[in-house]
Amino acid sequence: MITSIYIANERVQVVMGEAGRRGLKIQTHAATPLPEGVMINGVITDERALRAALEQLRRDYPSLKWQNVRLCIDSSAIYYKQMRLPALRPKRMLELVRGEFADMENAQELLCDYAVLQPRAQEGGVEALLCAVKREMVESYVQLLKESGIALGAVNTALDSQIKLVRNLPALREQTFIIMVLDGNVLGAAVFVKGQFRFANRSRLLAERGSEGLQAEVERAVSTLIQFNQSQKSGEAVTHLYLAGLRPQERELQAEVCRAFGLRVGQLSQGGCEIDAPDGFDMADYAYAAGNLFDF
């Protein structure tokens, strides 16, 4: 069993389970709220409060395993590039990736990595998602979790986890869709064309959650992504919208936005992946944490 932690803006989410070709098996899932301001744009601003939340999870869910844990993080300070690279050995590939971020300020302080999106790109080589993040940010998580008795095995990003989740949901492989995750006052959004990742952005919500203004903001974001897809001339129209992280009073938001654009309501729980999970588990509520269980 693998334990995956996603430290969101308003809560800490944990899922423990196994993921593979046969589907997803969730043994335990849990979440605990964070006081306002503990996390700001992926930066830990109150270590004491975050440590207390983790300790609360450990007390409330003694069956959770805290060794070789996978951590998922999100921030606008995580930098991405999508590009085609030659198919090389991993060590040489990492050298190329570092070179792509070499012109950034304080590049020597960045941790870089990549994920292969398409192992055989149409024009040769591989299609890859490149990532860079300040070493200081990652080390702050590693140190805090270590002090909380949690041994990390890997650190992944929310976008990476989302892409892994999508590629393991068979029903989404031929769809062209928008997927959005509401996390406190942050809206993460991405476009997938026939199941392949194309573009993502992350924006701060100005409207209060649950307010009428929230729908207008989500609709503006959807419109922007539809226009982006059209500008790319992919030959595929966006047909579905997936919304994750909705609060109970926002459950009608997805249907209302879909009606505005003539889209179909997408449900991650109906993605064609066999899910064995306890009652109360909703894939849309744990999208990042659950996606982090999958291997690329």
Automatic annotation (TrEMBL):
Q: Which InterPro entries match?
A: ATPase_NBD (IPR043129), PilM (IPR005883)
Q: Which domain of life is it from?
A: Bacteria
Q: What is this protein called?
A: Pilus assembly protein PilM
Q: What species was this sequence derived from?
A: Luoshenia tenuis
